[in-house]
Every structure is written in structure tokens, then in C-alpha cells.
Design goal:
Blueprint: E1 7-12, H1 15-31, E2 41-46, H2 49-52, H3 69-77, E3 82-86, E4 98-103, E5 111-115, E6 129-132, H4 135-144, E7 149-152, H5 157-165, E8 171-175, H6 176-182, E9 190-191, E10 206-211, H7 215-221, H8 227-242, E11 251-257, E12 263-270, E13 277-284, H9 289-304
Parallel strand pairs: 1-2, 1-3, 6-7, 6-8
Antiparallel strand pairs: 3-10, 4-10, 5-8, 5-9, 11-12, 12-13
Length: 314
């Protein structure tokens, strides 16, 4: 008869998801003596809809929630106590009974340029094929470099790098945070500045959910919360929520803390075909993070007018 672990951590099974879950496990064990006992913490792997359906773009199969629903359901059933998520996969409104008490320290939020032929998108000849599953990345590429061809490319980091090496595509874009966590950063041909490729909301951040009433989980997770990251992500997610953003919409946003101690938000929305882009910047005190994000999103929505984000993928 096996003894159930005190704390069961739910995660997807991709190499990146497992790396993030194991990092959280190690941090919890280091922070709590009662979790350092053998077998006290276990990592439980789940396949999500986003992992199973790989032959269609995310925008066609439901947007955000594709990588979290099965984990949410397992938590509500009591099969796991916490779940570890890439924050850019987490919907801005959580299911009833589930809360997000902890966001750990953020990794590099920028995008990486993956290419064996060039050091930048500008160096690629007309007709070069860029593979990406992200409408945000694809729309920004089309906006800046309309002479390049963008195609949908699903799969984990290793799958997309293999497609690049096999010559199926000329370049792809990946999150620098994922490459760093997997020890693969040396494969990046370059790293985009936010001015050249504004990141996804909450890119590089990892969040941990639990049941609202689970007092033990809240106690265990409290030491892992990173205040600066939380402020930045709260601002970015408020921006996204105001725009009603999902994987169906090309929205980008990055909040940073300035040397003066203010919060600086940059955001944009782009038509899927790249034909138009609208940008916004807001600054303000850290205490107003959610308000800054929400008001920026509402202003951008007013400027865009009806239908801006509804254009179907090209």
C-alpha cells in the first residue's frame, strides 16, 4: 500500500513544464522542513487539451484554458493540491474555487530568434518561412516584415527546434525564459528587444494555483511568492482582461519597474494579418498596477473600435 504524498503538484508533461514543476518542488522542499521528508512531495503529470490536439492552431481550438483545464479539474476533484503553470497560459478569470496565490520570480520575458541562416528577421530574404503557434508573434512579424511568410507551427520547444534543423522552416520564435530553463539558450541566434518584438502578457512568469480553502497549500506557497514579479504580472493581466484577450487575439504587453520605482507598461494589439498595429504606454505607482493595466486596455480598445481583434487568421 502506497502512502499519499502530503503535497501533490500537478503539471503538464512537456520538458519545459516538468522543469518548472521540479523547480517549484525543490523550492518548496527547501522552504519547509515538513516537505523535506522522503515522499512528502510528488509531481503528477497530466495531458491537457493543448497537448493532445497538435494539428490545429490554438486559436481554432479554444484559446486560453487549453493548457490548464485538466489540471483545474484534477485540483477540484482533490487529486492534486497545487498546479504549476506558465502564466501566459492562464486565463485572466480562474474557475470558481481555484485561486492564484503565488507567482515566482520571473525569468527573461523576451522572445528569442531561432534561425540557422541569419541573425535577425531583417536579414532573411523575401518568402522565408517563419513558423510560430503564436498569433501575437505572427502578427508582429507580418506587421514589420510583410515580405516574410508566417505559418502555424505547434509543438514543444524541442519539436520546433527539430523542425528548424530539418529545414521545414527558415526561422521560429521562442520564449527566452523557456530556453533558459531548459539549458538551451545557446541555440538562440539573437534575443529580441521589447521594441522589436513585444512579449506576451506574463511571458517568463510561472504561477502556482491551489484550492481557495486549502490552508496548508497557502502556507506552503507563501514563501515562494515574488513581490516585484507579482506586481508586473497583475498589471499585464489586467491589461489583457480589459481587452478580453486569449490565444485568439494578437495582444502583447510588458510591465517593468523603472529605476525611479514606477511601473511602466507597454502594450499593443495587432491585426492578425499585420496590416495595423496600435501601441500604448502607461506609467504610475506600483500600488496602482491593476488600474494602470485595466485603463491602458480600455483605452486601446476604444482606439481600436469594433472588429479590430476579430479578423480571422490568414
Amino acid at each position: 500500500m502506497t502512502t499519499r504524498s502530503k503535497l501533490r503538484i500537478g503539471t503538464r508533461g512537456s520538458p519545459l513544464a516538468l522543469a518548472q514543476a521540479h523547480a517549484v518542488r525543490d523550492a518548496l522542499v527547501a522552504a519547509h522542513a515538513d516537505l523535506a521528508e522522503p515522499g512528502a512531495v510528488s509531481v503528477e503529470v497530466f495531458k491537457t487539451t493543448g497537448d493532445i490536439v497538435l494539428d490545429r492552431p490554438l486559436s481554432e481550438i479554444g484559446g486560453k484554458g487549453l493548457f490548464t483545464k485538466e489540471l483545474d479539474d484534477a485540483m477540484l476533484r482533490g487529486d492534486i493540491e497545487i498546479a504549476v503553470h506558465s502564466m501566459k497560459d492562464v486565463a485572466t478569470i480562474l474557475p470558481p474555487g481555484i485561486v492564484l496565490p503565488t507567482i515566482v520570480e520571473r525569468e527573461d520575458p523576451r522572445d528569442a530568434f531561432m534561425c540557422l541562416k541569419a541573425k535577425s528577421l531583417a536579414d532573411l530574404p523575401a518568402g522565408s518561412v517563419i513558423g510560430t503557434a503564436s498569433l501575437r508573434r505572427g502578427a508582429q512579424v507580418r506587421n514589420l516584415y510583410p515580405h516574410l511568410s508566417v505559418i502555424s507551427l505547434r509543438g514543444n520547444v524541442q519539436t520546433r527546434m527539430r523542425r528548424l534543423e530539418e529545414g521545414h522552416i527558415d526561422a521560429t520564435l521562442l520564449a527566452m525564459a523557456g530556453l533558459n530553463r531548459l539549458g538551451l539558450s545557446q541555440h538562440a541566434a539573437a534575443v529580441f528587444s521589447p521594441e522589436d518584438m513585444l512579449p506576451a502578457v506574463a511571458q517568463g512568469a510561472v504561477g502556482i494555483t491551489c484550492r481557495a480553502e486549502d490552508e496548508a497549500a497557502h502556507r506552503w506557497l507563501a514563501p515562494l511568492a515574488h513581490a516585484e514579479t507579482t506586481i508586473r504580472v497583475v498589471c499585464e493581466r489586467a491589461f489583457l482582461r480589459a481587452l478580453d484577450g486569449s490565444c485568439r487575439t494578437p495582444i502583447a504587453g510588458l510591465a517593468e519597474i523603472t529605476p525611479e520605482g514606477d511601473l511602466w507598461l507597454r502594450g499593443c494589439i495587432v491585426r492578425v494579418d499585420g496590416s495595423e498595429r496600435l501601441d500604448i504606454e502607461r506609467r504610475g505607482p506600483l500600488a496602482d498596477a491593476e488600474t494602470i493595466g485595466r485603463e491602458a486596455g480600455e483605452e486601446l480598445l476604444r482606439r481600436a473600435g469594433p472588429g479590430f481583434l476579430d479578423l480571422p487568421p490568414v
